[in-house]
Every structure is written in structure tokens, then in C-alpha cells.
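Quick note —
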Amino acid sequence: MLWHCETTMSEEHTTLSRRRIGLIAGGGQFPLLFAEGACRAGYTVTAVGFEGETDPALADHVESLHWVKLGQLSRLIKAFRKDGIRRAAMAGSINKTKLYARIRPDWRALKLLRNLHNKKDDSLLRALAAELESEGIRIEPSTLFLPSLLAPEGILTRRKPNARERLDVEFGWELAKAVGHLDIGQCLVVKDQSVLAVEGIDGTDATIRRGGALCAEGAVVVKVCKPIQDIRFDVPVVGPTTIQAMKDVKAKVLAVEAGRTLIFDLEETVAEADRAGITIVARKGGEAPVEPEVTAEPAGKDAGRGSAEKPLPRVFVTCERAPDAVRVGVVGVGYLGFFHAQKYAGLPSANLVGVADINRSRAEEVAKAVQTQAYTSHRELLGRVDAVSIATPTPEHYAIARDFLEAGVHVLVEKPMTPSLAEADDLVALARRKQRVLQVGHLERFNPAFRTVAPHIRHPMFIEAHRLALFNERGIEVNVVLDLMIHDIDIALHLVRSPVVKISASGVPVLTALPDIANVRIEFANRAVANLTASRISVKNLRRIRIFQADCYLVADYGIRRAFMYRKEPDLEESGFPEISAEELEVEERDALEEEIGAFIESVRSGCPPCVDGEQGRNALAVALEISRQIQESIQALWRKSEARP
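Predicted structure written out below.
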């Protein structure tokens, strides 16, 4: 067979033995990837394959391929000696069940097996490595030429693990490491902090199917590197077939060890997981439990409070653009605007053609991160886009949104939509006249905790919301009502759907010139009441809503993504009092900002009304402005009283 690898002049002067490497090839694609990587590194490969296990296509990727049967250790060593191999690696899987049915060891293999204390994976492989090294053949790590296939740290998919799943990952991780100490297997399947399956000789995919079959859906798969793992061989491997096995049993999370797990066909694996709604998370071996990535999904301006901005990551786009992708742009790419750009860059249905910011260096920095064009004026996007996100400071919303609507461009504008009610009314009328989508960025409508409780809400009569945030300079151009409370105002109006008849508000400026803390009681025509509190000078972050209705009480925690339902059951307890059932609802973790932007693009493409249209944004603004007016009047009255005192 004619074999060719490109080499440099310096490589041509190295010895042949330094540029040769042996490969003990099992099944699967790993041996092919190893051979390709070795070739790129300037090596030629002598491979030994096992009949019935190794892919014959490996012959096209190596200089020579010698076939042996399982157990023919002497022939394996002879093949390497013949080709002058002094270094070798093991890659690929062996169907372990065949070891008990088909193996016929030669005298050398038989001697090796008889000297073993047990036949665990680690014992077998270490013994094989020692036998080869006794012949002058050093065993190298199987990842020698494939560092790019090692799992990068972090959440690799769009979906993130919810609160229950994060607990299951931590639970399963600790147990998987304990099982690894016993050299039993690398994979565990768990749910609700119970073990469903432990990997045996049947392998990872079979373990997933065994464990997943024991629960209806939602299993968590944990695959780790054993604490006693010899990284030269048996490194944990996952790939598209792993995701397929998880799909078959409706498993939801795959947790692997970052830097010590190989992911074959990373982009295909992640894309398939995204399509199936599966989370892939890679974490370091000794780290704390997996937490949601707050910075990847800000819940308005309050989500990032108290944290310094970090260098922008380059967006990893795993999707192909749809032929009819909507041309989009983002105006204002500060803290929140960058995330808008990031989400558009990852949506197949959107084509991010540019970002605009009056700060040229910031525009260029974000454009580079999301692989698009930078502009310094929003007018430069006119004629280039069909839809736009506006994430500038609130005082600039009206003029920019009006320019785009006049040009026939669909608009997603961050909340509050405008500083004044007259400007909001003008934008609503303009969007209606131009027949264009005007969506307002009330992000909590898309929060997975809220979406979990929403189907259970019938006729809410009392709503209580607390929105507390650490102080941050971002967003102080407006008061706390327009900055934070407006989220809960929108939710209350959306849930009650009855005219507001009375507003009683109080608040006070503490650290800024505008009110920093506020409370309001909103009464509706149907006698429902909403009691809302917002603060941007708190010592902790809290975003929680409680909803009371006949026979039921619901809680949604926007921040930690958990939801609860307390319900009166029809049967009475022996005491005669109603029986109360408590249930934590399963929250399907989603990226709220991605959901919001996806819904906007869908409205643009289909012509259907947006989830939060301009009219709803205008109504929330009207209530927020009335609350602000009452608070300001109260503050001024207090000032007048204090000035009148002698």
C-alpha cells in the first residue's frame, strides 16, 4: 500500500523509529481518528486489528494493518517488532461480552491472564501494557494526537440543567467516582438522587437504555474518568451514539469530565443534543455542583448586578443558517445588547448582519465575538436588516425604534419601551400602520420557572412578588420601578387581565437621585390584588412570585429556576381540616433570552402577534409611570415638610 504524509524537511532527517507509532485498534471510529491525527503530526502508523472488532476501513488510514484474533498476544508483538515499533497506543473498544465466548488465548496471553488477581479493565490493560513494555514498546496515551477531542469545560448545549438535574449530577458524580475506585465502570444513570443503572461489561449505551427504561423520562447520565484511571487507555468516550441512546429513553442530561473525556464528532453531538432537548455539561473532576450560567442569560438589567463585565467569548455557532433566515441587527451592544447579538448568532432562523454602538471599540469587539459587521450608527443598518433589537439606554429607545419602524423594519425593544406614554402610544400606532412586529423585552414571560407554573394558573386573586438586586451603576438612568418592578407589573397584568382600578405606591431614593426601593398595591376591577416590591440596594438577589387562587398556591423562583404548587385536596384529614399536597414542579430549563428572541423571529416570519406586543408593553409602562408619579409626589411632600420645619 502506498502511504503518504506531508513532512517538513527537519522531519525527514529524524530517524524512522521516532516517526513510527503502533496502534492496537479496537472497534469504533477512535482508531481511525487516532491514525488521522498521527498522520497530521508526521507519523506513520502500524496497526494491529482484531477480527470481528476493528473497522476494516482502518487499512486506508495506516501504513500497514495486521489482523489477529482476540488473545493472540504473541502475533501482536511480532507484528510490531517486524515494523520496528517502539511506541504504541491503544484506541477503540472491545465487546467485553465476547471475551467470555470467543477468546482463545495463545500461550503468552494465557500466562498473562493466569498471573492476574482479577480481570477488571484496569488490571487487564495495565498487564498488557507491562507485557509490551517488557519488549521495548512504550505505551502512549490514546489522546496523544487528539487533544482537540477532549471535552471543553462548561455547558455545551443550549439547554441547561434544571435544579433537580443539577442535584442529580452532583449525586451521580460522587457515586460514579466511588464506583470507579472499584474499577467497575465509568457510567451511572440516576434520577431524583436514586441510582437506576451502573455500567457493567455491556457498556455505556446499554447502561443508558437499562437505566432509562426504569423511569418514564428525565434520567441523568454521568460518565467520569475513574480515579485510578491510567490515561494511556480506556479514556471515557461519548458521541452521537450516546445521544441516540439517551433519546431512546428520553434521558435529559449527560455529564462528563472536562479535559478527560473524548467527544467524537463534537459539533454533530451537540447539534443532535440540541435537537433532542438534551443537556451536555462537562465539569472538572473535583469542582462544585454545576450551576446555571447566569451571564449567558441575563434576566434584564438586574441579572448581572454586582458582577464586573468579562472579556467577550467568541460565539460557538453549531447550526447552519436557514435559506430564508431573517436579516437582523442589534443596536446598543453594552451588557445586555451583547447577549442579544450572541443569541441571534446561534439561531438558524436569523442572519446577524451587523451590530451598532456609538462606542466604536465596543461595536468592533462584539462584532468580532459574534462574527459580524460593526457600525457606529443605527442608521447604517437601515436597508440591511429586516428586524432589529434595540438595547440602548431607555431615553434613546423612541427615536431609534421610530426610525426602524418607519423604514419597515420589525422591532424588539428592551423594557421599558420608552420614557413616556405618548412616545409608547406613537410607536404602537406606527407599528400597526406599517404592519410590523413591535415586541417589548419583558423577559420574565419566557423564564422557565414562570412558564412551568403558568399552565396551572386559572383565576389568580392575590399576587405577591419580590425583586431584589445588589446595587450596580447599570440602569440608574431610570428609577427602580422602570428598571426592575416593571417586570412584575407586566406579569401581574398578563395574569389578571382585568382593568386596574387603584394604585397605592411608596418608595424612596437611597443611593441615587431616583427611587431605589418601591412597594405598590395594585387593585383590579375583578377584585384581584397584586402586591409588588422592588429594590436595587439589597444585600442579596431575589426574584420570586407567589400566586394565590382558589384551592391552589403557586411559587415561581425566577432566579434559581424552581417552581412549587400547593393544592387543597378534595379529601379531609381525620382532624376535619383540608389535606394540602405539596409538589415541586419539573422546570424544563431553557435560555429565556434565546426563547424571547426566537419568538420574535417566529413572529416576524409567520406574521403572528408577538408574546409581548407593543400594547402590552405600553400598558405595563402606564402602570409603572403612575407608580413613579405617586412615589415622586410623596417624596416631594416629605421634602416640603422637612423644609417647613423651623
